[in-house]
Amino acid sequence: MNIHEYQAKALLKSFGAPVAEGVAIFSADEAEAAAKSLPGPLYVVKSQIHAGGRGKGKFKELGPDAKGGVRLAFSIEEAKAHAKEMLGHTLVTAQTGPAGKQVNRLYIEDGADIDRELYLSLLVDRSVGQVAFVVSTEGGMDIEAVAHDTPEKIVNVAINPEAGVTADDLAKLTAALKLDGEAKADAEKLFPILYKAFVEKDMSLLEINPLIVMKNGRMRVLDAKVSFDGNALFRHDDIKALRDETEEDAKEIEASKWDLAYVALDGNIGCMVNGAGLAMATMDIIKLYGKEPANFCDVGGGAGKEKVAAAFKIITADPKVEGILVNIFGGIMKCDVIAEGVVAAVQEVGLKVPLVVRLEGTNVELGKKILNESGLAITAADDLDDAAKKIVAAING
């Protein structure tokens, strides 16, 4: 689960991280009061969407010469004007895709005198099985480009979970960022705070880009991007309350209500599979035969008829879907249960696109019998390769 920048900063501030004063607003009418509550005279008006690259983004409705999604304001009147222009418009960035995202909230923040911009993130380094800091002196830039062009400027420091952030870890991090004086002292306080927040709140990513050294020598978290492990949200009602469903795909929201592992993609073949590995293999073979998957959908090993029907309805609700491939290996999952769910869903919502079903495993013959006797236009497949060929052929007409 992702949250907005202003929410991430409030969370980090509660742990003791240094952040600027700021106010979230939801209408242009709130901009004046928000700016007046800040020290000024410089204000930063920031679009709040779940995507990076906001500063370089462009608003669809405002033309190519309009300013981006992060703007400086040198007066309260200018902050008001920015808010009026940005709210309700669609911001397109490198991470939103061409459709962009509508800006429904802004964050007006007190400005900062920046001396240096640094990069810092925490993530789970699966190669060592530990949480790791990733830092660079090249803050404010596309970290992927830095990694490609100058990988030596990125330093990873994995943290032993039994020891936490040690003095040796701090020495490596501050040296990598070339910190000294007050900035180094601030960093030695900040880095353990960030690690504590990451672990206690079950984050999957904490990215600060940029982490700044101000002209007075002090450090500040200037931006914050935070994602949480969805499987751990049951432990964090306070984090669940921060969810902004307007930033999520409606199909993914509906899938989460049924505890389905569902990710919307850009292709035209809907997939319903049990097991993440089998789902990945199914998507791969669809691509092998020249088409693109419209989704990743894993119904899990213990799904019942109702859950299967819900998954099918979510897939058919996607207007991009031109065909559906159901690929089930019945281990814990029984093929007859899958068949009953598919038949029930088709009878309820109808079938407007080709449907190919491949069943194998427990109760496979009973499952096939249910499909064959349903009277529905369902194409059976013998194996995964056969299923992929048939669904692609059906779409190609």
From TrEMBL:
<dbReference type="GO" id="GO:0006099">
    <property type="term" value="P:tricarboxylic acid cycle"/>
</dbReference>
<feature type="binding site">
    <location>
        <position position="117"/>
    </location>
    <ligand>
        <name>ATP</name>
    </ligand>
</feature>
<dbReference type="InterPro" id="IPR013815">
    <property type="entry name" value="ATP_grasp_subdomain_1"/>
</dbReference>
<dbReference type="GO" id="GO:0006104">
    <property type="term" value="P:succinyl-CoA metabolic process"/>
</dbReference>
<dbReference type="InterPro" id="IPR013650">
    <property type="entry name" value="ATP-grasp_succ-CoA_synth-type"/>
</dbReference>
<dbReference type="Pfam" id="PF08442">
    <property type="entry name" value="ATP-grasp_2"/>
</dbReference>
<feature type="binding site">
    <location>
        <position position="209"/>
    </location>
    <ligand>
        <name>Mg(2+)</name>
    </ligand>
</feature>
<feature type="binding site">
    <location>
        <begin position="53"/>
        <end position="55"/>
    </location>
    <ligand>
        <name>ATP</name>
    </ligand>
</feature>
<dbReference type="GO" id="GO:0042709">
    <property type="term" value="C:succinate-CoA ligase complex"/>
</dbReference>
<dbReference type="InterPro" id="IPR016102">
    <property type="entry name" value="Succinyl-CoA_synth-like"/>
</dbReference>
<dbReference type="GO" id="GO:0000287">
    <property type="term" value="F:magnesium ion binding"/>
</dbReference>
<feature type="binding site">
    <location>
        <position position="112"/>
    </location>
    <ligand>
        <name>ATP</name>
    </ligand>
</feature>
<dbReference type="InterPro" id="IPR005811">
    <property type="entry name" value="SUCC_ACL_C"/>
</dbReference>
<dbReference type="InterPro" id="IPR005809">
    <property type="entry name" value="Succ_CoA_ligase-like_bsu"/>
</dbReference>
<keyword id="KW-0816">Tricarboxylic acid cycle</keyword>
<comment type="similarity">
    <text>Belongs to the succinate/malate CoA ligase beta subunit family.</text>
</comment>
<dbReference type="InterPro" id="IPR011761">
    <property type="entry name" value="ATP-grasp"/>
</dbReference>
<keyword id="KW-0479">Metal-binding</keyword>
<dbReference type="GO" id="GO:0004775">
    <property type="term" value="F:succinate-CoA ligase (ADP-forming) activity"/>
</dbReference>
<comment type="pathway">
    <text>One-carbon metabolism; formaldehyde assimilation via serine pathway.</text>
</comment>
<protein>
    <recommendedName>
        <fullName>Succinate--CoA ligase [ADP-forming] subunit beta</fullName>
        <ecNumber>6.2.1.5</ecNumber>
    </recommendedName>
</protein>
<dbReference type="GO" id="GO:0005524">
    <property type="term" value="F:ATP binding"/>
</dbReference>
<feature type="binding site">
    <location>
        <position position="46"/>
    </location>
    <ligand>
        <name>ATP</name>
    </ligand>
</feature>
<feature type="domain" description="ATP-grasp">
    <location>
        <begin position="9"/>
        <end position="55"/>
    </location>
</feature>
<keyword id="KW-0436">Ligase</keyword>
<comment type="function">
    <text>Succinyl-CoA synthetase functions in the citric acid cycle (TCA), coupling the hydrolysis of succinyl-CoA to the synthesis of either ATP or GTP and thus represents the only step of substrate-level phosphorylation in the TCA. The beta subunit provides nucleotide specificity of the enzyme and binds the substrate succinate, while the binding sites for coenzyme A and phosphate are found in the alpha subunit.</text>
</comment>
<feature type="binding site">
    <location>
        <position position="274"/>
    </location>
    <ligand>
        <name>substrate</name>
    </ligand>
</feature>
<keyword id="KW-0547">Nucleotide-binding</keyword>
<keyword id="KW-0460">Magnesium</keyword>
<dbReference type="GO" id="GO:0050074">
    <property type="term" value="F:malate-CoA ligase activity"/>
</dbReference>
<comment type="pathway">
    <text>Carbohydrate metabolism; tricarboxylic acid cycle; succinate from succinyl-CoA (ligase route): step 1/1.</text>
</comment>
<dbReference type="InterPro" id="IPR017866">
    <property type="entry name" value="Succ-CoA_synthase_bsu_CS"/>
</dbReference>
<dbReference type="Pfam" id="PF00549">
    <property type="entry name" value="Ligase_CoA"/>
</dbReference>
<feature type="binding site">
    <location>
        <position position="223"/>
    </location>
    <ligand>
        <name>Mg(2+)</name>
    </ligand>
</feature>
<keyword id="KW-0067">ATP-binding</keyword>
<feature type="binding site">
    <location>
        <begin position="331"/>
        <end position="333"/>
    </location>
    <ligand>
        <name>substrate</name>
    </ligand>
</feature>
<comment type="subunit">
    <text>Heterotetramer of two alpha and two beta subunits.</text>
</comment>
<feature type="binding site">
    <location>
        <position position="109"/>
    </location>
    <ligand>
        <name>ATP</name>
    </ligand>
</feature>
<dbReference type="GO" id="GO:0005829">
    <property type="term" value="C:cytosol"/>
</dbReference>
